[in-house]
Input
Amino acid sequence: RNISSSSSAPKFSRQIDRGDLQLRLELYCRTLRRIRSLSDADPSKPMEECVLQYVSKKGIRSRVRLIIQTYLRSVDCVRDVHKTLMTLVLRATLEVLAVEVWCQELRSTVDRLASEYEHKVSFASLAFLSSPDNSVEAHLEPLLIKYFEYLQMDWESLVSKCELERMLRTVLDSELRYFFKNAMFHSVGHILDECRRERESLDNIALPPPWMGVFGMARGGDTKVDTDAAIKQYCSDPTLVKQALRDLKREVITVNGQLLPPANSHMELAEHLGEILNSKKLMNSLGGRGSALIRKRRSKRRSQYTSDVGLELESDFSGTESDATSSKIDVGLVDVLVKRLLIAASRTGTAGDAYFIVRDLFGGEEVEVVPHHSSNKTNQGTIEIFITMNSVIIKSHAKFDIFPKPIISDSDPLIQFHTTTTETVTLQHSREASLTTLKEKKTNMTGWRTLAIRPAYYERIPQLH
Output
């Protein structure tokens, strides 16, 4: 509404075309009815944010007409066709998939769609032989309908890829990501030099908790209650728990150097972990003499993962020998560590973050990133838990090989990268009489992890002439 200064009578300026408004309201009402009917059919089933898979053919045609109408009013000249069409289709894609960013596959698909339309409608036909209305009806409308049908068929995979892209944009510095994705490396030495130059950034990639955003977290309210509820819901996912238990069997897990036996169920894992946490050996290690022995042992330890070298734990063991004999691990802490282990071990969950980030930075059209598989017996845990009087540190190690495409069996990788994902669980002391109980302390950094990426050690061999 624009009010003229010379007259008290208001003047209205139409902000949206009448036809566009009718189409938008029609689509909106249909979506509301569809969601309501789905919710009434099965109230216990969680609703997907993306409901494109339930849209009828008539609904797709309505949306296509809306895009076409906006396109016809927006294009002024031939050189604007590709850019305008890509912008409209990508924004419509974000809306129907209920995602924040588009993945590379979607962008490439829309780019091909716009190029195909440009190819079918030449400059001559646009300018002289046919009107824009006839061109979009004959060529653009079928392309858009086919594109939305593709979204309907592959929406689950596309939503997953868009969420992965959102995660990568969130955790990786834009300049660092752009450099490694576009750099042309001439040799292994060239990669090593660039990784050494960007070492500070590659050693400190902050990963948010996987449950971030659940129950309205970070938007006020009781942080402790929100965090507990979000973790409980996330770790109650039967698919995640089943896959994590399967993945745990492949891992070598140590708790302050003690090997954790393999488990076949959530309860069995909690039982094994509880036995180690309340063992006399671990309690003694938290005391003054025990901590000194651990510090001495760790000073001699050489990590098999370059991503863990130089990032060793600080000597934050505290307490006296008498404290150690009167300390106790709270039952709730055992449950906390079990959930954190399930999250750390699940390759389909957060443990896949390291793989996706390495693939994004160092993968490409000509190379493939593959998790390392070795038959050699390792003497260092792939998941290490270090318990002190102040905190619990969980380190998840992994190795990734970079192979040229196509991958040939028995071929050697071009280069290998090591990753270490570290999470710190802060502890608080609850003292009753002469007994000290260790419990988890919720902080604003609860669940946050730090990922370190480094290339493996390589020895320069002098060339003989």
Summary: Residues 1-7, 213-222, 313-325 have pLDDT under 50 and may be disordered.
